Amino acid sequence: MLARILTTLAIALLTTVSPLTVLAQSAPLPAKANVIVASSGNDAASPVGATITMQNWRDYQNYMPDGMAALFAGKYFWKMPADVAMAIGPAIIHPLPKGYVEATEKYAGQVKLVELPNGGLTLEGYAGGEPFPRPAEPHRGWKVLANLWFRYLRI
């Protein structure tokens, strides 16, 4: 039972963290540990409605984050259980709330990264919304991380 709980936590972590590498290019999609977001279901190659198992996971690895594919491949200590069955659902886009979007438009221009004497960075001028809607150099990675810290969370 403990192994199953830990596997579920690992899946949740890997499916949540993997999309972070694309935050700089697009708005983040909601992540769910038990559903792989494939597409809207309108294209012919869409696997929406399929179920991924240990026997057929390679057919769907192009739709998986790298960490999830590694769990299916069994490369590391953490592995998918032999009886795993994951349903592929359609992409669900939840638009950001109007107030968050308005705050981004209003305040994003005043947000700055300030270099500290010890070599670190700090955020200055943040008042609401996404601090860096289009992160660019210098310190692009830090800006992406700041966007993650100040992302909208539905509670």
Overview in brief:
This protein has 4 helices and 5 strands, in the order H-E-E-H-E-H-E-E-H. The chain has helices at 2-17, 66-73, 98-107, 140-149, and strands spanning 36-37, 51-52, 86-89, 112-115, 121-124.
Low-confidence stretches: 13-44
Number of domains: 2
**Structural class given helices, strands, pairing?**
alpha+beta
Radius of gyration: 19 Å
Q: What global shape is seen?
A: elongated
Work out the number of β strands: 5
Question: What share of residues is helical?
Answer: 25-40%
Indicate the proportion of strand residues.
5-15%
Number of helices: 4
The end-to-end distance, rounded to whole angstroms, is 29 Å
Largest sheet, order of strands side by side?
1-3-2
Integer average pLDDT: 79
What summary fits the major beta sheet?
Answer: 3 strands, mixed
Element string (H = helix, E = strand) = HEEHEHEEH
Outline the secondary-structure elements.
Elements: H1 2-17, E1 36-37, E2 51-52, H2 66-73, E3 86-89, H3 98-107, E4 112-115, E5 121-124, H4 140-149
Explain what this protein looks like in three dimensions.
The protein has helices at residues 2-17, 66-73, 98-107, 140-149; strands at residues 36-37, 51-52, 86-89, 112-115, 121-124. It is an alpha+beta fold and 155 residues long. Helix content is 28%, strand content 10%. The strands form two sheets. A three-stranded mixed sheet has the order 1-3-2, with no helix packed on it. A two-stranded antiparallel sheet has the order 4-5. The two termini are 29 Å apart. It has two domains: 2-89, no CATH class; 98-149, no CATH class. The longest helix is centred in the N-terminal third of the chain and has 16 residues, at 2-17.
